Automatic annotation (TrEMBL):
This is Gnk2-homologous domain-containing protein. CDD domains: Gnk2-like. The keyword Repeat applies. Pfam families: Stress-antifung (PF01657). Residues 1-100 form the Gnk2-homologous domain. Its main location: secreted. It is found in: Secreted. Belongs to the cysteine-rich repeat secretory protein family. Keywords: Repeat, Secreted, Signal. InterPro entries: CRR_secretory_protein, GNK2, GNK2_sf.
């Protein structure tokens, strides 16, 4: 799934998405709840928000593999898009330019 709107500089933006989600993948698989959220400041007025999550029936290593595979699928669906999500049977990743997770 993806946001239908494009970003202005897709090459730079895609790298930032990958950076944020890779960091969240590393946090999620090491967390007993297999869940992590975070953000990355893009400029003085905008942030990129992300989420990485696995089902808890996976091992930590399998969670990491699942998340990394999901992240690698983002260019196929969400290249240069303002938001995107890859949902698998055992994990999912999501990013948006707005805060979508509420504590």
């Amino acid at each position: 799934m993806w946001n239908v709107e494009d970003v202005e500089n897709p090459t730079s933006f895609n790298l930032k998405v990958k950076d944020l989600l890779s960091r969240l993948s590393n946090k999620a698989y090491a967390n007993p709840k297999f869940y992590a959220t975070g953000d990355l400041k893009l400029d003085s007025s905008s942030k990129l928000y992300g989420l990485a999550q696995c089902t808890r029936d996976l091992s930590g290593l399998d969670c990491k593999k699942c998340l990394d595979t999901a992240i690698s699928e983002l260019p196929n669906c969400c290249d240069g898009k303002r938001g995107g999500r890859v949902v698998g049977g055992s994990c999912n990743v999501r990013y948006e330019l707005y805060h979508f997770v509420h504590a």
